[in-house]
Amino acid sequence: MDYDDIVNVDDISDTERDELYEGASAGRKRNYHNILERKRRNHIKDGYLKLRDSIPDVERKKVSRIQILKRAVEHMRHLKAEIKRREMYCQELKLRLKSLEC
Known about the structure:
Helix content: over 70%
Largest sheet: none
CATH class: Few Secondary Structures
Order of helices and strands: HHH
Structural class: mainly alpha
Number of domains: 1
Strand content: under 5%
CATH superfamily: Helix-loop-helix DNA-binding domain
Number of helices: 3
Shape: elongated
Distance between the termini: 80 Å
Number of strands: 0
CATH architecture: Irregular
């Protein structure tokens, strides 16, 4: 297998990847590193987009990554508070039911 034959770095095993990297020239190593770095950045970008699209009032809007993180934290706090509120309401209903049963 030659470095030029690689179409997708995901299609080769770790061993083959290491062998190709070791035998590659400096320019090819740089190119290989650039491919991996681009893939890493795209993976991070996809993660931010998925996070953004799971937050109400932000989904499908163009916002910065820091805003996505800030809104995600706010949304998680809101969800935790909502869970706590509902748990308390559920406890109230159980107490009412218990008092009616007596």
